[in-house]
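Supplementary Methods S3. Input chains for the assembly prediction are listed below.
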Amino acid sequence: MSELLVVGSVAYDSIRTPHGEVEEEPGGAAIYFSLAASHYSKVNLVGVVGDDFDQNLLNKLQQRGIDLRGLERIEKAKTFRWKGFYESDLEAQTERTDLNVFADFAPCLPEEYRSTPFLFLGNIDPEVQLSVLDQMDGPRMVACDTMNYWIEGKPEQLARVLKQTDIFFLNATEAELMTGKANLIQAAQELRKLGPSIVIIKKGEHGVFMVGREWQFVLPGFPVSIVKDPTGAGDSFGGGFMGYLARSGGTSFSTLKSALVHGNIIASFAVQEFGVKGVSDLESWDLDERYQRFVRLTHFQA
Amino acid sequence: MSELLVVGSVAYDSIRTPHGEVEEEPGGAAIYFSLAASHYSKVNLVGVVGDDFDQNLLNKLQQRGIDLRGLERIEKAKTFRWKGFYESDLEAQTERTDLNVFADFAPCLPEEYRSTPFLFLGNIDPEVQLSVLDQMDGPRMVACDTMNYWIEGKPEQLARVLKQTDIFFLNATEAELMTGKANLIQAAQELRKLGPSIVIIKKGEHGVFMVGREWQFVLPGFPVSIVKDPTGAGDSFGGGFMGYLARSGGTSFSTLKSALVHGNIIASFAVQEFGVKGVSDLESWDLDERYQRFVRLTHFQA
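Predicted structure tokens for the full assembly:
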């Protein structure tokens, strides 16, 4: 089993969906990612919080084998906050963002983290992603996520990140924004030219599309009858995928496919509860059982 | 091999898409459906044309084993015409509809057709669907398609059709319109209460979702790099599905799953060309080859 390093946001989220609302729930990409990945591998977390962040959750992360030496805590300052809502189309609408300690996030990696073989650069400022890459000691596999804000705001820095990226995660809207191609095959081909050998385009409830040099792979979403809260689904997906890769230690096509299924499965748990509960309150048999259900939902006579 | 009867529109379509345009191409649901189904089973077609319909295409249909005794031809009258376009979202926008001979479509089934075991009621006036059902001699399997126009305009007649329907085809928007449920599991459960034991919700490029009494099955769309013309994709899908069922003669879960894959595959050919060319100019090895490609695109370690 290899280790996995994630750098990304740690936040308090206030969320309203058609199924209810929560105020100041602990969240953020790095938290969802770590919790999901911790079902598969040891995780080194890099992020920043204020002195107000939930110690209970941090204890829980540590119990799950998530190393928090890279989580900087700034006294007399507040954790990043996001407030938003979802309507029936399940697209996140932002009402308010308070960056707080995240505004000056300039991570300095603990010495022990630098040789971590699997690296996930969460959706943050590409300049911070570059700084993390510079601090790493030749990771075996670099994955990266981004969003429209950086695609439009820092395209050159993002391009530099992508040149060093093996696996690029983004959603279908972002893929079209970056390439001008609405067709996912065409978009993925364009994106591969920017550096990543593997492009993973997330399609929300419609599943995910993965493209490599001479292969494609596509999965529908795991059907869920009540999506309580889509927050963190993509990050949980990334955590399940990268955690499975790190556990397997390899990147054969067969391993990549299984990793994609594990990401898909854990994302389906994430959306069934508000906040991180869907990914934290899981046992390995829940994942195994849903994996087998997904086989029955999708496999047909070859 | 069982026979299959389809009733539906026969048309001239004028279509504009981002990849070009065509004027007065032969089309219509019954034509797409029959051509797709003819790759699997014998098809009896029920429809109506004017004296202006393309004899070459009719010859081609007959060469493919499609029985046209149920295709009424009205002299000195014109075939149904549809004109529309698609933008990058691939949603059909209607510019003009001339019903012509289709306005008074009141099919009288040839005697030889009435015992056809597999019946597909294409998307037409539910009163016409009811009249066809009345003329049939206890079909073994009734499938039905519809659209928003009938869902809103003739809900009671549609409800009577659905009480006699085994397999209900509709798209995701129509499923939400009929049930008020955006979630496809919830929508399918509501729709099954109306009569059909199997509900098949078409999601366009995102594939298809099939729900029965105690099972669900989901497929992504076959990824196509250039969608020239989405017209007829859903009808071709239905033809591939029903043709495969008729050929198999059964409705086991395993057969239903393979039928869904065949529908999915033939729909992916349909969209690669303007008009019916994508489904008519196909050989069985094209279908077999793409079936195997779809296995490789979707199957993972169980």
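Chain A has a mean pLDDT of 96. The domain at 4-298 of chain A is CATH 3.40.1190.20 (UDP-N-acetylmuramoyl-L-alanine:D-glutamate ligase).
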